[in-house]
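Section: Multi-chain targets

For targets with more than one molecule, the full set of components is provided together so that the structure can be written out for the assembly as a whole rather than chain by chain. Components appear in the order listed by the source. The example entry contains four components.
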Amino acid sequence: MTNIDAPDSSRLMSIAAVERDCGLPKDTLRVWERRYGFPKPLRDHNDERLYPADQVATLRLLRRLVAAGHRPGRVVGRPDEDLFALLRQIDSQAPRSVGGEGQQVLKLLEAYDAAGLREVLNAMVMRAGLGAFAAEIGPGLAEAVGVAWSRGELEIHQEHLFTEQFTTVLRSAINAAQGAGVPRRRPRVLFSTFPQEPHALGLLMAEAMFTLEGCLGISLGVQTPIPEIAAAARAHEVDILALSFSSMIPVTQAVAGLSELRALVPSTVEIWAGGACAGLRPKPGVRVLRALAAIGPAVTAWRACEDGRIAQV
Amino acid sequence: MTNIDAPDSSRLMSIAAVERDCGLPKDTLRVWERRYGFPKPLRDHNDERLYPADQVATLRLLRRLVAAGHRPGRVVGRPDEDLFALLRQIDSQAPRSVGGEGQQVLKLLEAYDAAGLREVLNAMVMRAGLGAFAAEIGPGLAEAVGVAWSRGELEIHQEHLFTEQFTTVLRSAINAAQGAGVPRRRPRVLFSTFPQEPHALGLLMAEAMFTLEGCLGISLGVQTPIPEIAAAARAHEVDILALSFSSMIPVTQAVAGLSELRALVPSTVEIWAGGACAGLRPKPGVRVLRALAAIGPAVTAWRACEDGRIAQV
DNA sequence: TCCGCGTGTTTGTCCTGGACAAATACGCCT
DNA sequence: AGGCGTATTTGTCCAGGACAAACACGCGGA
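Its structure, encoded as tokens over all components, is:
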């Protein structure tokens, strides 16, 4: 039966805990160990793997490198220095803009200043406006925090703190925008994420963008089973299903889930996918929006198309 | 490499797709097949399992029955009629008299009326006040929805919808209360849940109660690793750790986690636990609050005690 | 009658080592 | 340089065995 599985108890983690923490399936962890000699976990009295914290940290680096295109055979098992060097290489050629806002937020997080963080985020929304905040500043902040965390510069609880404050600020801004005079009209949009995707930030930013366009939005929150997303789409008679994918979710699961979902909802319902997940590719019946800023024009286009369809009839 | 995994193409699903949709791990699916002879999937040319849609539907029934307390050995493999009969039996013996508010909310959920639901919840807060809403009405609503779901009267996505609207309304009420004139002062309280506990509603209602008492609240959101909760408690120099436990979390894990946490934080930090989890018992250094209404008096008592300690010095 | 406790059964998760197809890299020919 | 067939890499699946935690059951004492 399941062990207590404290995901960090005494700095040793079970294979299930590592799977959750790093997003690498159990099978993959075992086959890497067999083929490349890494990771090399300790064993408990029953011969079950116990991963030390440092190996888990290295696994997180590896996950980022593989997601960035490196092949496991070339990087798994190499010393941490090499991995850091490769990561720096990627980071440097990445667009790279942890702007001043990012620095400011990281400083507040390091000082554990929750109230100050919230004030600063609120000020950013006020100054830049909800659209610019959700489309540009927000993703930048989220990435800066994610990078700092994967580098070990931030504790998990600091990341939680950021998420919580960010959510609060953005949600209240969305509420304010909904209350404002703009009349709500179609498309009707349903927001959610797949069961393996617990990150709500991307979804919330998307919701902000759709709200600014005057769409009718309904959110199911995160981690809805795929058949349930389909059922909700039918029940609410939505025009668009908006799904968010972070870089943590395995690409294979994302595309498999999208196929499944596509088969379950009528073709009149569009599926729009977005988020930091790298390998996301457009497929028949699934639209991929690379950036949040693309949502506005896409909604405009949808409305034009819809008007055309009505005129035809 | 992974198959395309079209999990519904021609109504046959791979084992990975079934894991996603039913929430039953691959290992469990295989061991049920080995031990009980069900499910009995077809095989593809490479001997991999292909589950027909009807078996997947039965697996969903089984999951509900097992969650309701039936043991797999007694139900897996029995014909669908029996399973339906058992489900009806569970439903009928469920307690349940739901208040007028619960009825209203359930009706709105059945009508998929998200906007109406939000309005009604908002009206409840206004009429009853935040304290009565969080301490009495909220828990009643949450239970009514939970019961309706376990009876199969509500889909998962309807429960998600409720959670989302409830969260939005309560959070904005908390924000308003924080903004209001009451000066914030100690105790400083940190909110979170254990890693196995994804339910945020109880935590949010507790946050509302503490906020009304004028406490300094910091939330980490749900599912924080236990060592991280301890680290955050030290970093933020909190006086009280407030933890929420739903009835879904195994009691053994809850008490084990509380012991672990108690050992990790200084004894000057109090740990207060609450929620619907039945077996929660007070232990040395851990206080159990049975109802949300108990928070107010408890905070008053804490302050009195604290004043005494200061006076002594 | 009810509760606490030791014993036996059930159950989920982990293990090893092998297999294979999809994805990717490589070498060859035009 | 660019298209194409072959070789390597890689993730996921399989079988069948093992074990500890969770659970049910029966016994003896209050």
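Residues 114-150 of chain B form the longest helix (37 residues).
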